[in-house]
Amino acid sequence: MTSSVALSSYRDQHFRGSRHLQERKLLNSTTLYVGNVSFYTTEEQLYELFNRAGDVKRIVMGLDKQRKTPCGFIFVEYFCRDDAESCMRYINGTRLDDRIIRCDWDAGFVEGRQYGRGKTGGQVRDEYRTDYDPGRGGYGKIVQQKTILPQS
Amino acid sequence: MSRRKFDEMSDYDSSRDRKRRRTDAVEIEDRLESLIIRVGEKSTSSLESNLEGLASVLEADINNYKSKILKILSDCAVTMPEKTTIYTTLVGLLNAKNYNFGGEFVDMMAKKLKEALKACMWRTARYVLRFFSDMVNCHVISTNSLLQLLHTLLDTARDDNSPQVRSDAYVYAVLSCLPWVGRELYEKKEQDLERLLKHIEIYIRKRTRKHVPGLRVWRSDRPHPQEEYLDCLWAQICKLRADMWQEKHIARPYVAFDSILCEALQHNIPPLTVPPHHPDNTYTFPWVVFRLFDYTDCPEGPVLPGAHSIERYLIEEHLHNILREHHTERKQCAAVLLDFPLKHKIPLEYMIVEVVLAELFHLPTPKYLEICFGSLLIELCKLQPATMPQVLAQAVELLYDRIDTMNVCCHDRFVSWFSYHLSNFQFKWSWDDWLDAAQLDPMHPRAKFIIEVLQRSMRLSYHQRIAEVVPEQFDCFVPAKPEHIFKYGAETAPEMEGGEVAQRLEACIRAKGNPTEVLQILRELPNPLRDGTEDEPSFNPLQVQIFTQVLLHLGSKSFSHSFAGITKFLKTSQNSCHPQLFEVLVGPNEEAQMVLLREMYEVWAKHQQMLVMLTDKLLRSHIASCATVANWIFSKEMQHDFTRSYIWEILHGTIRKMNKHVARLQKEVNEARERHSGRDSDDSSSDEEDSRPRPTEEEIERMEEKLEAVQADQKNLFLIIFQRFIMILSEHLVRCDTDGRDFNTHWYRWTIGRLQEIFMLHNTQVERYSQTLSTLLFTQDLDPHILDAFNQFVALRS
């Protein structure tokens, strides 16, 4: 069984620096990316949950680039690596707002990374998904656009 | 030329040969290690044939790999206690084939025992002793020699100069190996065994139990007695003795090899001198055995072993060991727990739940993060959805039933865990079963439990969700909507003193006014402290009030907004000519800080979580000091909320920050000292990371001064807290005495529980100041109820 604190295979393509540097940062990071968060989850809920793994230094809510509203991901930064590891061990894969959230190591928050990279402003995954998810704006963006285009 | 070529080639070949031989050797060692470590795991062959085969393999390699084999075996003996009998059998078989090997192994284990005792590694020592005991069953060690060792260890019980926890460690080790060797000793050395037990009995009788009340999860012994751990094991051993030392739990592979093993010659354990007590020694804290279930709680099926059956002890120990080994990987931990050997013979889910909850409620503090247990229980429910959730629900019902006498620390953990657990299951619960609580005094433990659970559940979701999920009879328990109250809003401001200034201040900050402009507006406010004399008041409370109210109101949207608002007036860039507002308005003045805290409470009284977060921010930004926060908690204004959990969340958070600060400075000083002296020894490992200049003696002195100053703050913080506790508790006791009322009110029990909680949660740090506390505060003339809390804490180490 792979360790719950191991790095995943994801690497941020926008990371400025070598793969090697990115990996070193991930291995020493105290920041986690958290995904599959509901658009309606508040900062208060996040602090309440993530403080259970250790003292949270700060939380940055991921925002829709155009609307500046939460778009379902966050960064959690702890003061020390041990606490971040506890988060990976005990919070990753459990529920917040009835949704299973997923935590992964992040190389560190940099201004600008709080914005979704999808074409319509949110996360890329919300562009392409086809299911209906009331906590994440309903249908995926492409599906939504298809349904409002007039029949030719 | 051709010869040279030949030589070169032969050199090349021999070095390759050497390398190959080395890697071959390593490969063989690795293979041996793997074979030894994995013996006893699931296999197509029987355990007996695996052991027989392995013994032959090892015997063949003994001459070449003896030291490696010795090391692997002795490590396995200690790290895999649940496989003790497997490894003793293996050693027995090897000893039968090779007497010298057996002797060397015994010597190695004796050394291990001595080292463990010296290093205060009590668990390791216990497992070595257990291994020795079982080696008697395998004819590797003589019974007389084991008995001698056991008596040597028990002699520590006569030593009156060392703490009780020391002799406890030795007696516990001796008792815990009897399940393995009791029968053998009974058959061959009955009188010696009885003598041994008599010594233990005398010791058990004369032990003090001052530490017990503080370590009980429940004050009451109904329905299940909560026994101290040594008393419990003694009772279990006594029952085993009454059953003629027959126990059915331990698998004994050596029985199948009896004909081979009884031919072997036995060794004697080298005599051991027990290392004396040293003030730096650390001993395991005593504990009280957590009993939640008995056999009537489990449905039809395998019976739960009784509280005094040795099976209960053995199984629980094994389950605790699984937690210890796998707690960092919850999926694996859950899988291993559910795959418990002999799981069909016991109500496994019940025993798992009891053990996990025992760890969650363990006093003084749990061994791992509370969320470790919470997430593990969720994982167990996932893997066993047909049975685990029901058992857990049953456990919650029982805990709620018995909550009246639950220790305050444990009540808090129960609340915290239960709300977290519910948040993973859509807050679905049979709330209707608990409707009777609505009739109770809100300070009654049951009512309080529901109030606090709903509060924490709201924090994990949102107000409307919780209001809707509970029955209407619980409306009285639903928390207030977490909103802020702003005194200087458009409607109310004109009537307030300074209201007009407050409104202009709000507008100014909204328009991104700089600190100088803000201060200018604040300076227009009169100072109510000015009493007409020449004296300049040390601060202006009206300024502090209005600034706090406006700032918090502007940041009321979220934590981030509030933090940003505070930070804005904290930092000044190096070139800025702007004042640092908090420094100017509040500074180190404790009264000013109190005004700030009180005003913060006025604004956010309905949002407990915000109060916790803001206090944390104020402490981290050094706007408020730990001492001030402590005094604020105990102030008259906070009396109304004094028994609410969030208050204690704030106070414990404050103490923890102080502790972390001290620890951090201590670490820096230690590191600096090491770097200072390390360079002298020209260690090659030191140049790997340290390009920093070596710290000077002067720098280290300054660091040590800083550390001393912060330690003084820490001591002062504890003194303030304990002093305040003593004051309010004494006041209550005296008042009740005068009025002829019973002092044992809900308020009293919560408060004395909170005092105990301080000792429990921060026992390591408080220990440092124990002497001062007993001289200055916890003196003999104090009311015994209050003094008890201190004495129970002291008894943890005595």
TrEMBL record, chain A:
Xref: SMART domains: RRM
CDD domains found in the cross-reference section: RRM_NCBP2
Predominant cellular place of this UniProt entry's protein: nucleus
Keywords assigned by UniProt, alphabetized: mRNA processing, mRNA splicing, Nucleus, RNA-binding, RNA-mediated gene silencing
Domain of life: Eukaryota
Keyword Thylakoid: no
Any Gene Ontology biological process: mRNA cis splicing, via spliceosome
Pfam families recorded: RRM_1
Gene Ontology molecular function: any one: RNA cap binding
TM helices/strands, residue ranges: none
Span of domain RRM: 30-108
GO cellular component: nuclear cap binding complex; nucleus
InterPro entries: NCBP2, NCBP2_RRM, Nucleotide-bd_a/b_plait_sf, RBD_domain_sf, RRM_dom
Subcellular location: Nucleus
Assembly and oligomerization: Component of the nuclear cap-binding complex (CBC), a heterodimer composed of Cbp80 and Cbp20 that interacts with m7GpppG-capped RNA.
Function, in words: Component of the cap-binding complex (CBC), which binds co-transcriptionally to the 5' cap of pre-mRNAs and is involved in various processes such as pre-mRNA splicing and RNA-mediated gene silencing (RNAi). The CBC complex is involved in miRNA-mediated RNA interference and is required for primary microRNAs (miRNAs) processing. Also involved in innate immunity via the short interfering RNAs (siRNAs) processing machinery by restricting the viral RNA production.
Family the entry assigns: Belongs to the RRM NCBP2 family.
Protein name: Nuclear cap-binding protein subunit 2
Gene source species: Meganyctiphanes norvegica
Organismal lineage: Eukaryota, Metazoa, Ecdysozoa, Arthropoda, Crustacea
Automatic annotation (TrEMBL), chain B:
Record-linked InterPro entries: ARM-type_fold, CBP80, MIF4G-like_typ-1, MIF4G-like_typ-2, MIF4G-like_typ-3
Residue stretches making up the MIF4G domain: 29-241
Domain of life of the source: Eukaryota
Annotated Basic and acidic residues bias: 1-16, 669-682, 691-700
Pfam families: MIF4G, MIF4G_like, MIF4G_like_2
Protein's GO biological process: 7-methylguanosine mRNA capping; mRNA export from nucleus; nuclear-transcribed mRNA catabolic process, nonsense-mediated decay; primary miRNA processing; RNA splicing
Keywords, comma-separated and alphabetical: mRNA capping, mRNA processing, mRNA splicing, Nucleus, RNA-mediated gene silencing
Renumbered residue ranges of the record's region Disordered: 1-23, 669-700
Cellular-component GO terms for this entry: nuclear cap binding complex; nucleus
Single GO term (MF): RNA cap binding
Record has Isomerase as a keyword: no
Family from the record: Belongs to the NCBP1 family.
Subunit structure: Component of the nuclear cap-binding complex (CBC), a heterodimer composed of Cbp80 and Cbp20 that interacts with m7GpppG-capped RNA.
Name of the featured protein: Nuclear cap-binding protein subunit 1
Organism listed in the record: Meganyctiphanes norvegica
